[in-house]
Amino acid sequence: MTPIPQAYFSSDFARALELAQETLAADADDFEALYVTGLLSFRAGREQSAARLIEGAEQRHPPICHFDFMWALQQRQGASGQLLYWEERLRTFLEFQSVDTFLISYPKYGRTWLRLMLGHYMLNGEAGDPLE
Questions:
Q1: Cα(5)–Cα(2) distance, rounded to whole angstroms?
Q2: 71 versus 122: which is more confidently predicted?
Q3: Helix or strand or coil: residue 29?
Q4: Assign residue 61 a region: left if phi > 0, alpha if psi is -120 to 50, beta otherwise?
Q5: DSSP character at residue 16
Q6: To the nearest whole number, what is the mean pLDDT of the chain?
Q7: pLDDT in tens, 46-78
Q8: What pLDDT is attached to residue 64?
Q9: Entry pTM
Q10: Among 7, 8, 65, 94, which is disulfide-ready with 12 (CB 3.0 to 4.6 Å)?
Q11: Is the Cβ–Cβ distance between 23 and 4 less than 8 Å?
């Protein structure tokens, strides 16, 4: 995790704001700095400003919009749930950035699954078909 969200999720809000402001001074389009600044604005009671900052971050980095699976929960929890929703969406998005392989579906039989996993291991990160 990069320093801005790391400071934020460590509850070092002053440091997160300082880092975000420094980053935005150098690059006004920085996704993480905008998003975290939005979270900090919401915490400070500036909901409309927060929404604009988060929306701006989404426009600059649209893939985060694919992490909206908590929408129903956020709807039930109201305004206090909005912060939780935005925080969890950012946390999950950042965690997914470090994943290099997703197992979306697994074969029906253990033998094929085992061949796939062993093949992936034996390729050692190189290109190729793990089942060959």
A1: 6
A2: 122
A3: coil
A4: beta
A5: H
A6: 87
A7: 999 999 999 999 999 999 988 877 666 666 666
A8: 93
A9: 0.72
A10: 7
A11: yes
Is residue 63 within 8 Å of residue 92, measured between CB atoms? no
Report which residue type is found at 82.
Answer: Q
Predicted local distance difference test score (pLDDT) of residue 72: 67
Distances (CA, A) of 2 to 26, 48, 91, 127, 128: 16, 26, 11, 28, 31
Q: Which residues contact 119 (CB under 8 A, 6 or more apart)?
A: 129, 130, 131, 132
Tell me which residue has tokens 């919009």.
Answer: 65
Residue with tokens 């704001």: 17
Question: Do 42 and 83 form a contact (C-beta atoms < 8 A)?
Answer: yes
SS3 131: coil
Contact 67, 89 (CB under 8 A): yes
What's the pLDDT tens digit per position in 26-44? 999 999 999 999 999 999 9
Q: CA-to-CA distance for 64 and 35, rounded, in angstroms?
A: 10
What is the token pair recorded at 108? 């029906």
H helices then E strands: how many in the chain? Answer: 7, 0
Task: Report pLDDT for 70.
Answer: 67
The pLDDT, as a whole number, for residue 99 is 85
